[in-house]
Amino acid sequence: MAAAQAAADKKAQDIVIIDVGDQLAITDAFLLAAAPNERQVLAIVDAIEERLLELPEKAKPVRREGERGGRWVLLDYVDIVVHVQHTEEREFYALDRLWKDCPQIPFVDRDLADSAAGTASAE
């Protein structure tokens, strides 16, 4: 959830968490996020890494791939694999569809929840 919120804080789009634990032995979940340009992809990746280093467990990725191109960056934290993709790659590779049989883990951006709560209390 911390990684998803870090992505949301950097304006990532289409954030989805997929529980792949029953299908894959190598990880429990995929976090998918998209951005419209390479620069934002890299900013989201940096924000996720920083946020996870702030956790009490100080999570660091065991593997990091794709940073040079900035089109699809993969961060492997063993329990969770983060995929931050350029919007075009996200649409083309459609990991959501590939793993559609796996359950999604609900995620609601804290800022959206706060603004919805504020709107509801104002009414």
Automatic annotation (TrEMBL):
Transmembrane region(s): none
Assigned GO CC terms: cytoplasm
InterPro entries to which the protein is assigned, alphabetical: Iojap/RsfS/C7orf30, NT_sf
Compartments, record wording: Cytoplasm
Taxonomic superkingdom: Bacteria
Molecular function terms, GO-annotated: ribosomal large subunit binding
Keyword line: Cytoplasm, Repressor, Translation regulation
One GO term (biological process): negative regulation of ribosome biogenesis
Family membership noted in the UniProt record: Belongs to the Iojap/RsfS family.
Summary of subunit composition and partner proteins: Interacts with ribosomal protein uL14 (rplN).
Role noted for this protein: Functions as a ribosomal silencing factor. Interacts with ribosomal protein uL14 (rplN), blocking formation of intersubunit bridge B8. Prevents association of the 30S and 50S ribosomal subunits and the formation of functional ribosomes, thus repressing translation.
Name of the protein in its database record: Ribosomal silencing factor RsfS
Organism encoding this protein: Micromonospora chersina
